[in-house]
Design goal:
homotetramer, 239 residues, alpha/beta, 9-stranded mixed beta sheet, 7 helices
């Protein structure tokens, strides 16, 4: 796993603006996610919005196999060109793991083609994540469900394309459901949307959530399949 | 719609064994479903398990466009040959609407290839059915969600193939979720599994549930597509 | 069917620039498509790129149930705002039928999130369209395959998301295959990509191709499902 | 990879009945497949129809992670109980790779719920397998297409459920197409149907075909996801 090059991108605004969030994530949400992946043998790097080119320079993206994304307040701070570049890297084969409110990030919306909107509520409700496809690699080593005592509620209908594979469905104590683990293939790339991760709760320290993320990285890594030739082609000569 | 030939098959055991159920469904569950479809201009017929050939003779099936199925206690009373025949009619193009506990009926299990089992609980819990694909014809004229004050709870993971189209997901007050409106194409036939319908609650009198069933019949009707030729074939002469 | 408001949008460049194409389509490709739909009882209107707002004003789009699109040379002549508007109407429920080279049109690419590129060759090859889902409404009244003596070849891998429903696969005499009938649901809208339609061949006069388009319009029409509420919501009061 | 327990099941009839086939596969089709997997570091075992319990005893199946199946002439020689047992093991998580004419094997048909029939022709035609999902792990290290100079032709519509993931589509020189690489999840198990492998051609010696099989074994291996609890359950106590 060491040779899968994982980059964790975090907006890193809440952690700097709010003492409360900073206390929960003293090393940033990215730091907590990185720590979790290290326990599974990965060697991730982290970048943040305040870095040059929003932390998403060509040099960085050219050396990324799987990009994990956490954003919430500042989706618009990513210039369109950078969002397009991230989208293109996914189509070229980079794995893309999209967390929580990052469903509204520019690259994810560009890749989905829909608004990606949802119902939401910050109400300390319980989220219970039911594993719908236990045979999928992202379900590896998971229990039948993952219960999060307090989480932000997201509710359907969420405006996403039907996932190629629906892995998790969440139940919320306030009355909503949400497709909370969604796999997509776009171009050569694999995309996993994972719902949990509100900044006010220490979710990315949990072993089960970390297991999901480790599984997702392994699933989303590039497959070294054939690059596609496009455009005007002549008939293939029979061998 | 009058020319869509709908047959409603009902086991019709609860209604005869239990005064309580007979009081809820004095004309049988099949009668309540038929009444609902009539309001939408359909002209359905009903058959029951106690009829010759379980109500599923060749003559009946040969004149059926869409078969609606409600069974619970007596799945095994259907001989294997009849179950195979129903399966074959679906593959030949007959629509098949499978209600509630009929997920364990022989024809549905044969068509799915899985156990179709679920978690369940009779506990007077609330079921809230969220519409996940509001652009699908089965969502026609529905609200954003359908709330059933008291229903039997079904819970994931249910052992079904991932539906070709997932239309509804149900939330239950006791903590479960369920893929409760599932579309499948098998052979030339279209199959819709719809979760609600526990015999102890008067669900099939509801306007919203009747709208779902009317929509489903229209969606599941045969499409008059091409019959497939199988077996040894010669190359098609170029026109 | 008369009450389904169909708009056929055509770039209409080939027909004006080339005597050869004008001879094939004296009333434009849009005219031939409209004529075909009329035979099925539709009452379509046509618009072209050279009209104000590219023929896609709010007034027109507000009165469109299904938009059929044929473009090839001038995809970039559609301003981004209009492309975004078309995309948004699809998400709001408008059907969208995308023909041939229109796979590279701005609205389709925005909705798919991928490059939508393909291999292609203009070589007078035979295309044989195999019907993969004969139970789907778009296969209504079709034969097992549709053979087009001469068509432009498109080849896989085409860079599209896996369709929600794959209806046709085309075989080409030069050695390629193409997913040539692809259904997508995005937002409340239904999208059908249909491959045939190179301007140099009189394809849109064919009865079988017109049957496909008539079927597709019926399938893609809005379903009158629920509008989704997004954003911050409070828990639903139990009824 | 050594610890993935792979069993290759072969009918092994052609090899014993026909000198011609015996000359092509002196160690049996199973032997050629085994040899191919060994090159990728697997340590497969082989079983054949003439062994006790058709080579599919509980002891063997209990120690199988991925079962590869090649059958053609003697599908009916597998007793129903054994076919059901194989199906159940798949639902319990065993990977299942189904080759060529094994689409008509009992376990595959039970799992699919359809007839699995196809058009076919033994005519020395060329098969060109186009890779449709190059980002999928089964496409690892493959070229854009795999060309087989002479193969048996299979043609659509083949009577299978729409695959969860469609990886390959084959083109045949005689005019047919075939969905030739199809992924399914059923229960906890993963199933891959792969079309090539007519006994008269030395296909399982090819490096590219062996790459596909090695990829498929890795994809189909059990994921160690949660076992599902079914039946009557009580509400989960909130933690």
């Amino acid at each position: 796993m060491e040779n899968i090059r994982v980059i964790i991108w975090n907006e890193n605004i809440h952690e700097k603006k709010s003492e409360k969030i900073a206390a929960i994530y003293p090393n940033g949400i990215h730091g907590a996610i990185a720590e979790g992946l290290e326990k599974f043998g990965y060697n991730p790097k982290t970048v943040t919005l305040d870095m040059p080119e929003c932390g998403l320079s060509d040099e960085i993206l050219d050396n990324t196999d799987v990009l994990i994304w956490w954003g919430h307040l500042k989706h618009d701070a990513i210039p369109d060109e950078i969002a397009e570049k991230v989208k293109q890297r996914v189509l070229d084969g980079m794995g893309f793991i999209v967390l929580h409110a990052s469903r509204l990030s520019k690259p994810f919306k560009l890749l989905m083609g829909t608004s990606c909107r949802a119902k939401w509520r910050e109400n300390d409700e319980t989220e219970r994540i039911w594993i719908i496809e236990p045979g999928h690699p992202i379900a590896r080593n998971l229990p039948e469900y993952i219960e999060i005592d307090k989480e932000e509620t997201y509710g359907e209908r969420t405006d996403i394309p039907a996932p190629d594979e629906l892995i998790f469905i969440s139940w919320f104590s306030g009355g909503e459901v949400c497709r909370s683990g969604c796999c997509y293939k776009r171009g050569l790339g694999k995309i996993f949307y994972f719902k949990p991760g509100h900044e006010e709760y220490p979710i990315y320290y949990r072993d089960d959530i970390r297991q999901v993320l480790a599984n997702a990285v392994d699933w989303a890594k590039p497959s070294n399949g054939p690059k596609t030739t496009f455009g005007n082609v002549q008939p293939i000569e029979k061998i």
